[in-house]
Amino acid sequence: MSDDLRRRLIRLYAELGAHTEPECAGNRCPKPLSCCAPMYCDLASDFAREHWGVKLEPGWHPTLPFMGPAGCTVAPHLRPICTAHTCEVNEHGCKRGDEDWTDRYYGLLEEIGRIEEQVLGKRGIWPA
Ligand code: SF4
Ligand code: SF4
């Protein structure tokens, strides 16, 4: 049961990542990846170890241990806060002018949160 729920979590986080990543793509971001910071890499490292038994290995980047040449190297379910982050949600609590996107976003967060409470005993993403 727990393994099934973990597999479901991995799929849901992949879906959440696929939902949020395009928000940063192309020329949408004025300062690409400026939202990444060492403290978020540290949080991902702690979360991955504590809840998934995964030790994340640092790469070559001088300040962001898990940044690779083509973006973050960490699987979406191991870095919940990063996967869920978009500037619009961070600043406005929604994607302005796109109710469908916002509904899907919060739907995924809610389903992920419910499963994480069962499997991990806590939610990986703080409510926006
Ligand atoms: S979340 Fe914001 S700052 Fe980070 S990459 Fe996306 S648009 Fe850029
Ligand atoms: S997205 Fe990856 S590189 Fe950026 S802060 Fe999160 S863990 Fe670090």
The structure class reads: mainly alpha
Task: Measure the end-to-end span.
Answer: 29 Å
Strand content: under 5%
Q: Mind summarizing the main beta sheet?
A: 2 strands, antiparallel
Bound molecules: iron/sulfur cluster
Strand order of the largest sheet: 1-2
Outline type: flat
Number of helices: 5
* Cα-atom radius of gyration: 15 Å
**Strands, total number:** 2
- SSE sequence, one letter per element: HHEEHHH
Poorly predicted ranges (pLDDT <50, ≥5 residues)? none
Q: Provide the domain count.
A: 1
Q: Name the helicity range.
A: 40-55%
Mean pLDDT: 94
What features would you describe in this structure?
The chain has 128 residues and is mainly α. The protein has one domain (2-119). Helices cover 52% and strands 3% of the residues. It has five helices and two strands, in the order ααββααα. It has helices at 2-20, 38-52, 80-84, 87-92, 99-119, and strands at residues 67-68, 71-72. A two-stranded antiparallel sheet has the order 1-2. β1 (67-68) and β2 form a beta hairpin. The protein is flat. One iron/sulfur cluster binds next to α2.
